[in-house]
Fold this sequence. Notes:
The chain is an alpha/beta fold. The protein folds into two domains: 31-149, Rossmann fold (3-Layer(aba) Sandwich), CATH 3.40.50.1980; 157-270, Nitrogenase molybdenum iron protein domain (Rossmann fold), CATH 3.40.50.1980. The chain has helices spanning 36-44, 78-83, 98-106, 119-132, 140-153, 178-185, 205-210, 223-236, 249-252, 257-270; strands at residues 31-33, 51-53, 71-72, 75-76, 88-92, 111-114, 159-166, 171-172, 188-190, 215-220, 243-248. The relative contact order is 0.14.
Amino acid sequence: xxxxxxxxxxxxxxxxxxxxxxxxxxxxxxxxxxxxxxxxxxxxxxxxxxxxxxxxxxxxxxxxxxxxxxxxxxxxxxxxxxxxxxxxxxxxxxxxxxxxxxxxxxxxxxxxxxxxxxxxxxxxxxxxxxxxxxxxxxxxxxxxxxxxxxxxxxxxxxxxxxxxxxxxxxxxxxxxxxxxxxxxxxxxxxxxxxxxxxxxxxxxxxxxxxxxxxxxxxxxxxxxxxxxxxxxxxxxxxxxxxxxxxxxxxxxxxxxxxxxxxxxxxxxxxx
Length: 271
């Protein structure tokens, strides 16, 4: 697998701390996250300083890079986790094995399972973290973000899209994913059938040839990937000018507020 270096365009926002500083009187909890997305989300909520450890690949914001690691994304170490004596373990239900969660429950460690498949889920789960872990009862900043996002939804004209996760074998981003839902709420229509519930389905070339989108999104890390995808689009749909739009993985592969803040900006520039 090639590793590319991708420089983020200047028009991207880097919302490390979407929320203001945490309210006075909040005692500092010892928190562990089991995925990079949850690590980034906790920083966005303004509580990154409560983290005592995180999973591998928790690399954003910069402060997250110095956190001790509890193991890989899909295989957190139980003993390593417990050695930090956490008050809470925030569990990414899509990336954490069930036996890890069962052991935490058996040993009576507090944990909170987080599952995000849509923009609505992101807001609901953020409220859940703020309420259950940090005893917050008002979500004014979340409400403001919802209003801002709703305003963005009204600006884009409708468009049809295919979102490519991997070119060979052809693997698309399904309609039941956070990124697809985000694109859909901003005016897009995922051309994959709604009956296809697999998050990242492998698709036959015959289907690709019969279904030409207005835009082909590629989740990637380099301009080279965009150029290779542009070549593919000309082969797949030689009689239609399908625009290829690169979605940098470090901004859009994670279920965070950074994604819903940055994508409207990108679409306004590209569409």
